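Teaching note: in complex prediction, the entire set of molecules is handled at once rather than each chain in isolation. The prompt given to students was simply: 'Predict the structure of this complex.' The entities are:
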Amino acid sequence: MEIIKIGMVGLIGVLFAMQFKMSKPEYSYLIIFGVCLLIFMTAMRYMESLMLQIDSLKTLFSDKLGYFKILLKVIGITYICEFCSGICGDAGYKAVANQIEIFGKVLILIAGMPILLSLIQVMQQFVEG
Amino acid sequence: MGVNLIFKIAAVGILVTILGQVLKHSGREEQAFLVSLAGLILVLSWIVPYIYELFSTIRNLFEL
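The expected output is the structure of the full assembly:
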């Protein structure tokens, strides 16, 4: 049911933005920005309820809670990175969008590095053991 | 919140376009530019709090 509402919001926004495409392009981008914000905020609201269920998973990861935090961090980074680069790309500034993407990848690499190191340690134990 | 944000932005856009045309044809280019600038700043002042709210929800949701 919610998907119909979201689809309607998107369509309304696009129809309004098209009016300003020729005369005032900055307003069409602002409208598209507003629509993306609305949809993304509703997505975050559903993500919050999802998070409550995911918390129950935390008991499984009880010993390696750090990895779970890194996983959440990476998801957050990708969400924001995708949102901002989409807006910049939509406005026609592909270069900025690519820079944001590259920066997001670097951040994810940095965030995921501890997992990689611990994986290598585990493998070393196998080899030596 | 919600859809009326989009309608508000569209309304400001239409108003600014009309005012700009009127001012432009009556020979006052600078006022037309100022009107569109004012409209832009007004819409931005509506959108910025939502951006802040969105990014702060993401931050404390994913413990960033």
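Point out the following to students. The radius of gyration of chain B is 16 Å. The longest helix of chain B spans residues 29-62.
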